[in-house]
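Duplicate of #3305? Posting structure anyway:
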């Protein structure tokens, strides 16, 4: 039974509507959210069932309005409702722990639409900087598709698995899930090295039978070898975009061009080659999938 002597406050708009026919009360900080049964029934089947149960508590002065105690904080409850409430626009999460609390509550109350929107917002706000923590969280919650998104973004981490890559979510992740991440990272690194080499090997093989087809120059072989080693430990697009070996290869391509007027075309040619290289790497890496948790 709710403590009638416990002082409560009313949440800010739009949850201060006196016409509401039900109240959700945070038992952590004692904030009342005035809302409507119809909206709650659409939002969550759990809330729908709770609103039909007999309630011992009631709003002060309006005994006909039932009060449902909610164990989540008012900050978590407010965000949950704002994600679904008509014309409401949720703000950015105040912290990563706040985002985690909202996701866990959305799952707890079976709020599928809200949960989907919450995860999208969390990924947008935190994925660049908290990728490993998000991977751990998604694995913990059993969300394989989202774990795949986080694992793919983690490909940007060089030498993943070294002791320096300790993250807050490590205490909440199983050894198996962490192994899945490391195995995926390694498999992507191996896959990123293969596609262009195979195409160039085929071209070289054809050149043996056709003198009009030239073999790859030594500086290009060197670039592919060194960039391939970079991709092994960091198999993503930005590795090729930021590689110092690309600059070296471009300089060599310019030096190899005899025609002074055509030297600028060497730069264009290398830019086009790198774009092709990136496309091949992305295509190869996309074929590698994070192992299932089962």
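Output from current build:
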């Amino acid at each position: 039974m709710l403590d009638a002597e416990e002082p409560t406050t009313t949440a800010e708009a739009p949850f201060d509507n006196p016409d509401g026919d039900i109240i959700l009360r945070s038992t952590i900080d004692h904030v009342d959210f005035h809302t409507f049964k119809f909206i709650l029934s659409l939002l969550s089947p759990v809330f729908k069932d709770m609103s039909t149960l007999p309630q011992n508590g009631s709003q002060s002065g309006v005994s006909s309005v039932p009060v449902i105690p909610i164990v989540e904080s008012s900050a978590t409850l407010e965000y949950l409702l704002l994600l679904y409430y008509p014309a409401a626009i949720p703000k950015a999460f105040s912290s990563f722990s706040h985002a985690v609390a909202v996701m866990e509550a959305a799952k707890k109350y079976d709020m599928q639409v809200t949960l989907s929107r919450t995860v999208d917002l969390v990924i947008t706000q935190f994925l660049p900087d908290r990728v490993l923590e998000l991977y751990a969280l998604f694995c913990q919650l059993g969300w394989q598709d989202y774990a795949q998104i986080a694992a793919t973004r983690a490909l940007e981490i060089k030498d993943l698995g070294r002791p320096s890559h300790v993250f807050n979510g490590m205490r909440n992740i199983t050894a198996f899930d962490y192994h899945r991440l490391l195995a995926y990272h390694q498999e992507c690194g191996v896959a990123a090295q293969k596609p262009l080499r195979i195409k160039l090997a085929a071209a070289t093989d054809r050149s043996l039978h056709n003198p009009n087809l030239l073999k790859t120059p030594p500086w290009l072989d060197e670039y592919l070898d060194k960039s391939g080693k970079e991709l092994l430990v960091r198999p993503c697009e930005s590795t090729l975009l930021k590689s110092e070996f690309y600059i070296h290869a471009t300089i060599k391509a310019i030096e190899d061009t005899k025609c002074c007027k055509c030297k600028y075309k060497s730069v264009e040619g290398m830019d086009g080659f790198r774009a092709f290289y990136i496309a091949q790497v992305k295509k190869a890496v996309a074929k590698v999938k994070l192992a299932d948790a089962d």
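Confirmed duplicate; merging threads. The chain has twelve helices and five strands. The radius of gyration is 28 Å.
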